[in-house]
């Protein structure tokens, strides 16, 4: 069982507060549940930083409000860390679920992020694991002092790529990452999630990766990810009015090979008929 559960609530009203109070009254396990209602709302990134600052245990695990842990998730990661105390950041596979909590059965989801048996352990360096997003958006276990030292960057700096940038900063600091080939978290793709309601995460993460000063050995992973992100980054840049950036990405080396494809032509038409808000 965890030492404590800390909830940072950005919602209005007292529905969540009443639920937590009811759980605290009737809980059978000796787990501290601390609830904080943010007035005014902090926004996701500042809320996460607030939770990190309030953490008293020596390990920190983030779980966004839409997502779930597998029943043995915490035990699996704690046992892993106890078997090798040098591990500073540990994580596993994710399952995509819908609003009802049902497995969406998305083929190749974990493979896309190098979360397979072949990459278990420390096969990828910390920065490689961050770039390819083997390090997940939540459900990881990290030394609390590292989380407090790193923190999340503001939305003004990284847009909706806060989770990605957090992993990137951890990787750049070369903390010891460990991937275990075991399901840890369930990532919900809901009707109200950022993933479906518009985001600039691919655009922002594209810029963050491109700006990295990496050794030659990491170029393959960097180029692999930039090629994947480029088409999405272009569309997202157009949607948020960054037309100049979208044009730039369109003709960069990581998108050139897609220019004459059907998708490339569609993106060009979007560019030509879009308006800049810069």
From TrEMBL:
UniProt KW Magnesium keyword: no
Highest taxon above the source species: Bacteria
Signal peptide residue numbers: none
Glycosyltransferase 2-like domain location: 2-89
GO molecular function, one term: transferase activity
InterPro entries per record: Glyco_trans_2-like (IPR001173), Nucleotide-diphossugar_trans (IPR029044)
Keyword terms, alphabetized: Transferase
Entry-linked Pfam families: Glycos_transf_2
Protein name: Glycosyltransferase, GT2 family
